[in-house]
Every structure is written in C-alpha cells, then in structure tokens.
C-alpha cells in the first residue's frame, strides 16, 4: 500500500507516494535517481549502501523508507558543495583509496559519520567503525590512511 | 538454459569468433567528423586478438583495419579499446602511454572502452594482457599519430620534419617561428593512417608521463558517486527483471503455475523452457511476482563439500572440452624420478587441498537490455563484451552486427565475469516485455549461479640431499588447474602433471587461476623440506634457483622484512614464499601471531617485493599488489564455498567470510622497476605468494603445519 511520505535528502525535501515497507536504498536509487549508494548484499553486511541519517551511518538496504520520514538523510551525492569536495572525498583521492570504486560511497559515508562523532579517531577506532564495510579489491590500508588523513587535514584547518 | 556446464580456465580455451565485423570505417569517420584516424592492420596487431595464434583460428581472421585513435579538428584525442576497466586502473595507465607518445597531458586523452560498436574487437580483459599487449599497441598507434602530425606540419611549413618538435598539443617549427595546433593540421579532412607492428615508440627510460604515479583519472566520479555502473543505468520506460531460480543445480522443471504472477498489474511473465522470469515496473513488484510463481523442481542427490577432495582425487572426465594445452602447458617429465629419490637424504610426501571459493565482486552480475528496431543493446558488467555479444547472438539467433554490448567501468570481477548470464536473461525479458529491462542479480544469486575458482587436490613427493639440493620433484594437481604448475626450482628429476577431474560445481577463471593453489602447495612443501633438513627456508630456495628475477624479488622482500636478522617475538612467526606467473615475479614475507590455546591467528605484517618489467604507474601498481595480498588472505585463511545436494549453503556475506578491515595487516610493497624489460601484467601474480607465506609463518609460530586452503576456517587447529 502506498502512503505519502516526505523524505529529506541532501537538504532537499521530496514528497513521494510510496510503499513504506520498501527499502530506503531502492527509493533513493529508483525513485530519486540517487544511484551513488550501491546494492551489495541486501542484508546490511557489506556497507555499500551506507547513508548518514541523523549523523549515524545507516545501511539503507535494510532500512524501511517509512522509518526515515522527517529525518535528515545524507547520501554520497550530498557531500560536495559548490564544486568543493568533502575533506574525506579529497583524502580518498589523495591516498588512491579505491580500485573499482563500488564500495567507495559506502566507505566514505561510514567514514563521514565516524569523523562527525569522533574527529580524531585512533586506528583501532577507525577499524571498529569501518569493519562492516567490505572492499573486495582490498584497499583497506589505503582507506584507513585516507580517514586518518582527513582527520589530520581538518585538525590543520581548524588551527 | 542449463548453467551447470563446467567452465574451463577460460583464457586457455576461449574460442574467438570465427568472424567479426567492425563498424564500417567510413561510417566511423562520419561519426567522428574530420581529423586523423589511426588504424592498425589487424593481422599484425596483438597476439591476443589472434587468440595468441595457438588455436589455429588466427589465420582465418580477416585482414581488416580497426580504428584505435582519433584526433579531431579541435585537437580532441579519443582512444578506442575493447579492454574493460574493472578497478585495475587501465583507464589511467593506457591514457598515460598515449599521452606520452602524443606529448599531451593525460587529461587531454579520452578513452572509449569496451563498447562493441565503437571499439576494435578484443578477446577480453583477463590473463594480465593489458599492460604487455594493449599498452604497447596504443603506444605504437599514438606514436604513428604524432609522426603523421609532424609530416603534415612539415608539408605545411615546407621544412624538414626532423626540425619540428611536438609539445602541448602543437607541432612547432622553432626556426620558422610557427606552430600548428593538432586539430588545425588536418584542415577538416578525414585522414586515415595505417600503423604496422614496428612503429617505433618512446623508450621507457625517456618516459615523462608513462611510468609515473598519475592520479586515477576517474577518481572524482567515484568519490562523488557520479560514475554509472551497470546497475545505475536507467533507460526510458525501463522495467525491473527477476528470475525464478531452480531449487538446486541440475534441477529440472516438473511443473509451473504462473497464473497469479501474470494476473498482477504491470507484470510480464516469461516462460521459455526451464527459463522463468518476470519484468515489472518496480523491483519490489518483480520480487512479489517471482514469489507468486509456483514452480516444482525435480532435484538430484549430489556431491557435498565434505566429500569433495575424494571425488576430485578420483579424476575422471574433465568436462573440459578440447583440453589441448589446458593444464598440460606446465606439465614436465624429465630425468628419472626413482633415481632422484634414491639419491635423496631426505624424502617428503604431502597432500594439499584447495576449496572452491567465490569471486564475490561487490557489484553483482547485472545487465540492462533494450531492443529497438530489431537491434539489441545491452549494458552489462563483463570482462568479455565481445564474448557476451556472441553469447547473445547465439541465444537469440541473430547476427552479431545487430547487437551492441557496452561494459561500463565495473564494480570489479577478479576473473568472475567472463560470462554473460545476466545479459542473456535481461535481453530475454526485454524482448517479451517490449521495454528495456534491468536485471541486477542478488548477492545470493551471484554466490550461487556464477562460477567458482576450481577446488583441487595436489600431491607432492620430493627428495633433497643434506645440503638442500633438490634431487626429485613429483607434483600432481587434480582439478585446480595448470597455471604455474611448473616449478621454477632446478630439479634434475621431475614429473609435474595436471589431472582433470569431474567437478561437482561450475568452475571457471579467477584472479591468477590455479597459480595460487600450485604456489601454495609448492612453497609450503619447500618450507616443510627446509625445516626437515634444518636449512633456512630462504637459503633452501636460493640454493635451487637460477632464475635471476625470482631471486631478486626473494632477496628484496627478505631484506626489507629483516629475514634472518630479527627473531620473531614469542607467539609470533615468520614465513616466506615466492613465485612467478604471467611474466611477473613476487615474493612475500609474512609475520603472524598464532595462539594455539585460543585458535586465534593474526597476520601482523606482509612485506612483498614485486617485479613486472617496466612499471606503467608505480602508485597504482602498489595499490594492485596490496589489494591482491588482502584479497588473497581470504582464500588463504577462511573463504570456502559450502555446498550440499546442488545447493550453496553459505551464499551470503553473513555466512561467507571475506577479509575485512580488522584482517588487514601492515603492508609494505617494494617495486623493482625493470625499464629494460617489457611490462607484464600485475593484477594477478601478487596474489600467489601470500597464502604459503602466511601458512609458513603460522608453522613457525605454532608448530602446526596447515596444508589446506583455507587454513583456519574455524580458527587454528591441528589438522585431524
């Protein structure tokens, strides 16, 4: 059954007539054409679909869209502002922290949520926060370096 | 559609289509407008396109021109290659080599890749062929284009071409004080330049752009989520597809009732033989429609994981048709094995096993198919777009020229996407629905209906004298494959053989193929021999090794690791392994902690030396090596497909353990750049040494010798 729902994605409000039991991921991708968030497993075990809701890294593939109304949702498409990348996006490029790039959006969103809560995470805190995200290409050391670098850069910027 | 056929190690047996028809050259020029089009005479181009000339079909290939590079009237450079970007960064490295020859920045080069209507025929992106074959080919093409531009400028300014220089998109006549932009030299004419195999290119020692760590050209599109992978492609009026899968492998359809599904609004149901699928206006509706189909399948009792190795060891019919060359490539028989064993002070016999594992690329198989005016266009994640075009032509009994396959840069493959299942399925649904259809396989489908890296049993018997000289080497590989089966160690008496077996699961290509299994067995066995003889494992290898390139990586890895110089801390162990495959060389030293009480093993540090001839992009090469090591840890430690009666029992990431952040050790990579040697591929070989290096380190730490991959699926235990 379709309900009307209002989704707040990347600072924009979308009025939708949708089945509230659908996954947030499918609504983002198929209804809003925000395809940066990826399907990888459908059970919240790979992290490719990660978005940030209310500051929290959330697996959109196992999140009912009906539970997201009224909450601020940020997807990978919402990080760039006026052509300027988020520091973590920059750090991913600087550290060459990707190969095929399919996990990248989910990695960055998980990392963004972590840095939002903890601007200076230790390596073990990064590992703990990121452990639910899979990179089959095996770029984990580079992603760790990128998150560390983004944290450093922000610190530098604040000084 | 019976998917239960056995897949050979595909690049060994792949059959090139007997004929192919590139887009007509005049039509091509029309599309591109004026400028210079550089073509290669196909018969003289890459060995790969001629199937390496080994299967006899090379001679049948038509001698025709294929367009590789175009420089437009505004100086825009477009390169056309049938290769696919799967994360190995060839979109960058190939742009680099073209930029080098044209003396242009990398950003000025656009690569059109993997589009059967726009790019020259290509066998596929596998077997580490891009760097050794495609890169030199594009260097020749770009070099010829540069020379053609110089000739045009010389003609225009009536000077000797030798006095002209090329830089920044211009040909400059310094003496005459004139320069010509690339685009204006063609004066709107469409010029075609033919290139042959011996066009000279800039030697690597003079490279300024190639060979440097140019940043990934598409990085921004990836970090912003803008890049469109196949599952992101959207077409007007597009429907979503789902397939009704059989209850098990080899199951046959007894009865099916599709009435309820057909009654659903916005749903098209297709029943064609054993193929049952639906197309619907949304993915959710497609799922509901599939759930409403009532299908009854007849299943058969089948081999289970626990019986796997006994079955493979029996050998039997291979299912690998026309096995000429397959596996037999590395087979060796020389000297007298009995004499060699009699001369040995120490003999060792051991059996090693390797489980089936899945590629599990994060982007599962997917396709978007669209029929228009009898022409079929399919976007799909495949390493073989031209091969998939052929599959589609066969499936729909239509000419290849009416089919276009486009492989967007992909969420990786690792050898797992040589086939076009999703493309055929999506096209079948789209044909029935009369609208474009997108089909994205679920993770469970990808784990179940793709193919696996072959499992195998390897039996090794060896003999050595007290000083560590190998006198005998007998090596039998059952089912896993023949890649790198030949031992690089000097042994006068040897018998090395691959034996085909009857595989219970569909098996196929995988990053480095059987080179991983064969190195695991060989390099573990040498470690066992070294310990039995009381000789340092590195010293034993070097004693029996003449191959300078392999010696060099072993020595470099050992030196950077501190092998023989530092002692492992209590509970820690060091291991070393090395090897060669596809023309490149790798050695890995591992440090692990292993706790026999808790069963916990942690790989602490990996130091790897790698050499693949001339390096095209050092940073990206490092990334490849690191990635291969970490991916390799999965197969080494815990990845294994569990199956019973034609069903995969762990077809999810929650049940199939892949390496995660917490598994990643500190990695150090040493690259040996050999600018005097041609480039070899690097995406595969770095994976082959990590499993034995880690296993040898586990033994050093715990005294437990592990001879099965994965080694610690349930933690560290003494093998029963």
Description:
The complex is a heterodimer of chains A (159) and B (720). Chain A has 159 residues and is an alpha+beta fold. Chain A has 5 helices and 5 strands; from the N terminus they run E-E-H-E-E-E-H-H-H-H. In chain A, strands 2-1-5-3-4 form a 5-stranded mixed beta sheet, with helices on one face. Chain B is of the alpha+beta class and 720 residues long. The two termini of chain B are 42 Å apart. The longest helix of chain B has 28 residues. Chain B is flat and about 80 Å long. At the A-B interface, helix 1, helix 2, helix 3, helix 4 and helix 5 of A face helix 6 and helix 17 of B.
- The percentage of residues in β strands of chain A lies in 15-25%
Distance between termini of chain A? Answer: 53 Å
Gross morphology of chain B is: flat
Q: How helix-rich are the residues of chain A, as a percent range?
A: 25-40%
The geometry of chain A reads as: globular
Can you give keywords for this protein?
heterodimer; A: 159 residues; alpha+beta; five-stranded mixed beta sheet; 36% helix; globular; B: 720 residues; 18 helices
Secondary structure elements and their pairing?
The complex is a heterodimer of chains A (159) and B (720).
Chain A: E1 3-9, E2 12-18, H1 24-31, E3 50-53, E4 56-59, E5 72-74, H2 87-94, H3 104-117, H4 123-130, H5 140-158
Helix pairs in contact in A: 2-5
Chain B: H1 10-13, H2 25-32, E1 35-41, E2 65-71, E3 77-81, H3 90-102, E4 109-113, H4 130-157, E5 164-167, E6 170-173, E7 178-181, H5 182-185, E8 190-195, H6 219-223, E9 239-243, E10 252-257, H7 259-262, E11 267-272, E12 275-280, H8 283-292, E13 294-298, H9 308-313, E14 332-334, H10 337-342, E15 346-354, E16 366-372, E17 375-380, H11 385-396, E18 403-406, H12 421-433, E19 437-440, H13 443-449, E20 456-464, E21 470-478, E22 493-499, H14 515-533, H15 537-543, H16 548-561, E23 572-581, E24 584-595, E25 600-611, H17 618-637, E26 643-644, E27 647-648, E28 666-672, H18 690-702, E29 708-709
Parallel strand pairs in B: 1-8, 3-4, 9-19, 15-29, 17-18, 21-22, 25-28
Antiparallel strand pairs in B: 1-2, 2-3, 5-6, 6-7, 9-12, 10-13, 11-12, 14-22, 15-20, 16-17, 16-19, 20-21, 23-24, 24-25, 26-27
Helix pairs in contact in B: 3-4, 11-12, 14-18, 17-18
């Amino acid at each position: 059954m379709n309900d009307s729902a209002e989704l707040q994605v990347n600072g924009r409000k979308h009025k939708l007539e949708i089945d509230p039991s659908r996954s947030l991921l499918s609504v983002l991708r198929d209804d809003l054409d925000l395809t940066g968030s990826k399907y990888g497993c459908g059970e919240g075990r790979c992290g490719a679909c990660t978005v940030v809701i209310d500051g929290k890294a959330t697996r959109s593939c196992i999140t009912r869209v009906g539970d997201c109304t009224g909450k601020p949702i940020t997807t990978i498409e919402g990080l760039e502002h006026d052509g300027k990348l988020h520091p973590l996006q920059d750090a991913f490029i600087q550290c060459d922290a990707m190969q095929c790039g399919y996990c990248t959006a989910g990695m960055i969103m998980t990392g963004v949520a972590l840095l939002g809560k903890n601007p200076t995470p230790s390596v073990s805190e990064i590992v703990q926060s990121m452990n639910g995200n899979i990179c089959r290409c095996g770029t984990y050391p580079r992603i760790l370096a990128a998150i560390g670098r983004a944290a450093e850069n922000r610190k530098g910027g604040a000084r | 559609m019976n998917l239960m056929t056995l897949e050979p190690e595909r690049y060994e047996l792949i059959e090139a289509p007997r004929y192919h028809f590139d887009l007509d050259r005049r039509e091509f020029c029309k599309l591109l407008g004026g400028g210079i089009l550089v073509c290669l005479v196909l018969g003289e181009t890459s060995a790969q396109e001629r199937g390496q000339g080994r299967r006899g079909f090379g001679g049948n290939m038509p001698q025709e021109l294929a367009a590789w590079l175009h420089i437009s009237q505004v100086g825009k450079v477009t390169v056309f290659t049938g290769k696919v970007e799967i994360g190995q960064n060839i979109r960058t490295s190939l742009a680099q080599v073209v930029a080098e020859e044209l003396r242009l920045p990398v950003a000025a080069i656009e690569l059109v890749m993997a589009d059967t209507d726009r790019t020259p025929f290509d066998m596929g992106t596998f077997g580490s062929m891009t760097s050794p074959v495609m890169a030199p080919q594009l260097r020749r093409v770009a070099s010829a284009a540069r020379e053609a531009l110089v000739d045009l400028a010389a003609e225009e300014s009536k000077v000797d071409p030798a006095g002209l220089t090329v830089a920044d998109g211009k040909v400059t006549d310094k003496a005459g004080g004139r320069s010509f932009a690339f685009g204006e030299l063609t004066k709107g004419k469409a010029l075609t330049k033919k290139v042959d195999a011996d066009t000279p290119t800039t030697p690597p020692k003079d490279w300024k752009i190639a060979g440097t760590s140019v940043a990934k050209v598409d990085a921004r599109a990836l970090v912003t989520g803008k890049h469109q992978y196949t599952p992101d492609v959207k077409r007007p009026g597009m429907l979503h597809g789902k397939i009704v899968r059989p209850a098990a492998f080899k199951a046959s359809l007894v009865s099916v009732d599709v009435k309820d599904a057909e009654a659903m609004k916005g749903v098209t149901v297709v029943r064609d033989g054993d193929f049952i699928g639906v197309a619907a206006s949304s993915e959710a509706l497609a799922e509901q429609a599939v759930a409403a189909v009532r299908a009854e399948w007849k299943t058969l009792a089948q081999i289970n994981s626990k019986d796997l190795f006994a079955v493979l060891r029996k050998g039997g019919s291979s299912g690998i048709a026309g096995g000429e060359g397959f596996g037999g490539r590395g087979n060796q028989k020389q000297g007298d094995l009995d004499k060699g064993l009699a001369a040995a002070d120490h003999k060792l016999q051991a059996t090693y096993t390797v489980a089936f594992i899945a590629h599990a690329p994060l982007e599962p198989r997917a396709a978007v198919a669209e029929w228009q005016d009898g022409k079929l266009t399919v976007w799909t994640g495949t390493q073989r777009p031209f091969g998939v075009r052929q599959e589609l032509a066969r499936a729909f009994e239509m000419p290849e020229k009416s089919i276009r396959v486009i492989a967007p840069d992909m969420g990786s493959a690792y050898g797992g996407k040589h086939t076009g299942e999703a493309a055929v399925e999506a096209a079948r649904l789209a044909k029935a629905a009369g609208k474009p259809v997108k089909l994205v396989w679920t993770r469970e489908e990808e784990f179940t209906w793709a193919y696996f890296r072959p499992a195998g049993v390897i039996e090794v018997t060896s003999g050595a004298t007290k000083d560590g000289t190998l006198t005998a080497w007998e090596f039998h590989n059952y089912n896993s494959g023949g890649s790198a089966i030949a031992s690089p160690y000097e042994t006068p008496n040897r018998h090395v053989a691959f034996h085909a077996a009857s595989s219970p699961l569909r098996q196929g290509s995988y990053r480095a193929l059987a080179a991983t299994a064969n190195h695991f067995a060989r390099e573990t066995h040498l470690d066992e021999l070294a310990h039995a003889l009381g000789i340092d494992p590195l010293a034993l290898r070097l004693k029996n090794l003449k191959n300078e390139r392999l010696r060099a990586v072993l020595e470099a890895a050992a030196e950077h690791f501190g092998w023989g110089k530092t002692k492992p801390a209590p509970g820690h162990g060091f291991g070393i392994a090395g090897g060669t495959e596809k023309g490149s060389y790798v050695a890995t030293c591992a440090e692990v902690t292993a706790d026999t009480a808790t069963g916990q093993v942690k790989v602490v540090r990996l130091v790897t030396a790698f050499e693949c001839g001339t390096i095209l992009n050092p940073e990206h090469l490092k990334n490849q090596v690191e990635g291969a090591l970490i991916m390799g840890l999965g197969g080494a430690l815990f990845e294994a497909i569990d199956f019973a009666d034609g069903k995969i029992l762990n077809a999810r990431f929650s049940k199939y353990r892949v390496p995660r952040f917490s598994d990643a050790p500190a990695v150090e990579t040493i690259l040996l750049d050999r600018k005097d040697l041609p480039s070899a591929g690097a995406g595969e070989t770095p994976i082959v040494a990590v499993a034995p290096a880690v296993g040898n380190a586990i033994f050093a730490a715990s005294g437990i010798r592990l001879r099965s991959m994965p080694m610690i699926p349930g933690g560290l235990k003494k093998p029963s």
